[in-house]
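Because discrete structure vocabularies remain unfamiliar, we turn briefly to a single example record, giving the amino acid sequence and backbone structure tokens:
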Amino acid sequence: MKSAIRHLLRAALVVILFVIFITDGMDADARKRDDDTANPFTHGKVQMTLETGVTTQAEVLEAFGAPNITTIDGQGREVWTYQKHATASEERRRGIEGSILIVRASSETVGFDQSSRTMTLIIKFGPDKKIADFKSMSTSF
């Protein structure tokens, strides 16, 4: 009888540990996807999407949405400025505590990391509404 109870407790412990590890991994994957979709402005996307003399204002709007600022420069060209900022933060947590009889998941925070990214994109359009020139700058800290 005691042997059967021990086997059941061990099996329950394995199942509980498995579920905790799986759900913790799923949360981390979801946080990463959220971070990636929160700020679609990257230097790579800018370089792949924009082409001088080819890309139109409509294509820029489709790729990046409405600009933060629109102005006219000294040469009469329309200038669109995009300024996007994203902050990513993550807590480091402790794992699992337990014994053969009692299992307890701990979510005690043991550390905190935070990083910021800023992307600035300036696009100048010619009279044909195609990109005449563009510059981008990205910072991370």
Observations:
- Residues 26-38 have pLDDT under 50 and may be disordered.
